Amino acid sequence: MVAVVFNCAKCEKPMIWGSDHDTEDADGVGYIVSNYHCNDCNSWIEHGQPVEEPNNG
Ligand SMILES: [Zn+2]
């Protein structure tokens, strides 16, 4: 498992991972969206990452 740490854009503290959910864009590309929040200033972000799945057409 890879730990990904984002720093808060506002106060530059490490952000805390909250949860993941799956989504899909209009072209059917799947994404994992991860939520991160900052305990220091309550900022939060969503980080979307394409899911690379075998596509058998
Ligand atoms: Zn912050």
Description:
The chain is mainly β and 57 residues long. It has a domain at 16-50. The protein has strands at residues 16-24, 30-37, 44-50. It has a three-stranded antiparallel sheet with strand order 1-2-3, with no helix packed on it. A hairpin with a 6-residue loop joins strand 2 and strand 3. The radius of gyration is 14 Å and the shape is elongated. The mean pLDDT is 89. The structure holds zinc ion. Zinc ion (ZN) binds next to loops.
Distance between the termini: 29 Å
With strands numbered from the N-terminus, the spatial order across the biggest sheet is 1-2-3
In round numbers, the mean pLDDT is 89
Major β-sheet profile: 3 strands, antiparallel
The rough form would be described as elongated
The proportion of strand residues reads: 35-45%
Structural class: mainly beta
Order of helices and strands: EEE
Q: Report the bound ligands by name, code or SMILES.
A: zinc ion
Low-confidence stretches: none
Number of strands: 3
The number of helical runs is 0
Rg over C-alpha atoms, rounded to the nearest angstrom: 14 Å
Q: Helicity, in percent?
A: under 10%
Short description:
This protein is mainly β. It has no helices and three strands.
Write the layout of secondary structure elements.
Layout lengths: L15 E9 L5 E8 L6 E7 L7
Antiparallel strand pairs: 1-2, 2-3
List keywords for this structure.
57 residues, mainly beta, 3-stranded antiparallel beta sheet
